[in-house]
TrEMBL record:
Pfam families: Hydrolase_6, Hydrolase_like. GO terms for molecular function: phosphatase activity. This is Putative sugar phosphatase of HAD superfamily. GO terms for cellular component: cytoplasm. InterPro entries: HAD-like_sf, HAD-SF_hydro_IIA, HAD_sf. The lineage of its organism: Bacteria, Bacillati, Actinomycetota, Actinomycetes, Mycobacteriales. It comes from the Bacteria. Coiled coil: none annotated.
Length: 330
């Protein structure tokens, strides 16, 4: 039985998991479509609060997925879900973010304002490249007057084609510095987005899927969900070996296509003919066959590395096949 047979939904990260640089990652569309055929729903969860769910859904449809707006949860939506525990319909809120964030708040039944003089009950801050001193100052004034403070996410950087730019968390830090008040954050690696997505689907056994250990996997683990890590994005083999316990996935695959493999094969453990053992401060990777793969070696090493109480100094390949697969680790 495949891993999919044990779950009723996939909570999927986007960047590095489903797409990269505007293009679908090889195998992603086939895997997600195959899951739908098997009766496993997909919900796309993203820390990006700049785009509305309709924009994300349209991009996914252009890639060939049958996706509706309701299949997407952004950190802006998750922040509104979080704030709903403190607010009532018609309450005044100050949105520090994009027009799409303001529209979502209006749709949720709140009265959206832009000034602290309107005495908002809550301030919700999300990423907007056009934010400046005036908007951040209005947020600080409102928070000092007693407004409850929420952030869509605390990502300090924003990946772009030019490199890492200032992220929402860095602008939140300015407000925190001015007020001494830290916000409640709805984004990964917190559990709120995963709770929100699962509640929207009404599922009991979701699988959180992503490529970043410190956001996707840590967030899924925090929500006490099974987690599946793919090697198509940010966190590679070396990061997995060094991962603290809260960032260790339940399963790991080369890509989303591995969702069709048996559960046991996707867990850390000896496979592919490899064995691993501790030698001093190192882990030795031994044996293997010409058909053995890199991820089989990784799962073999992880069983030993994660059971050890300290980080290994080196992973030492001790055979030609081990040398071959480890050469590509990053």
């Amino acid at each position: 039985m495949s891993l999919l047979s044990n779950h009723d939904a996939l909570l999927l990260d986007l960047d590095g998991t489903v797409w990269e640089g505007g293009r679908a990652i090889p195998g992603a569309i086939e895997a997600i479509s195959g899951a739908a055929t098997a009766g496993v729903a997909s919900m796309f969860v993203t820390n990006n609060a700049m785009r509305g769910p309709e924009v994300v859904a349209e991009k996914l449809r252009a890639m060939g997925l049958d996706t509706s707006d309701s299949d997407v949860v952004t950190s802006a939506q998750a922040a509104l879900d979080m704030a709903s525990e403190y607010l009532q319909s018609g309450d005044t809120v100050l949105i520090v973010g994009t027009d799409s964030f303001r529209a979502l708040a209006t749709q949720a039944g709140y009265h959206v304002v832009s000034s602290a003089d309107d005495n908002p009950k809550a301030v919700l801050q999300g990423m907007n490249p056009d934010l400046g001193w005036r908007e951040l100052s209005e947020a600080a004034l409102a928070i000092r007057k007693g407004a409850t403070y929420f952030a869509t996410n605390l990502d300090t950087t924003l990946p772009t084609e030019r490199g890492f730019m200032v992220g929402n968390g860095s602008m939140v830090a300015a407000v925190v510095s001015a007020t001494g008040v830290a916000p409640q954050s709805a984004g990964k690696p917190g559990p709120a987005m995963f709770y929100s997505a699962a509640n929207r689907l009404g599922v009991r056994a979701p699988l959180a899927v992503g490529d970043r250990l410190d956001t996707d996997i840590q967030g899924g683990n925090a929500a006490r969900m099974a987690t599946f890590h793919v090697l198509t994005g940010v966190s590679g083999e070396l990061a997995l070996i060094e991962a603290p316990e809260e960032q260790r996935p339940t399963y790991l695959g080369q890509s989303l296509l591995d969702l069709n493999l048996p559960e046991k094969e996707l867990r850390p453990g000896a496979q592919g003919g490899f064995t691993a053992r501790i030698d001093g401060a190192d882990i030795l990777l031994e044996r293997g066959t010409p058909e053995s793969t890199s991820i089989q070696a990784l799962r073999t090493v992880l069983e030993v590395a994660w059971a050890w109480k300290k980080e290994p100094a080196l992973i030492r390949p001790m055979s030609d096949d081990a040398e071959r697969v480890v050469a590509g680790w990053r």
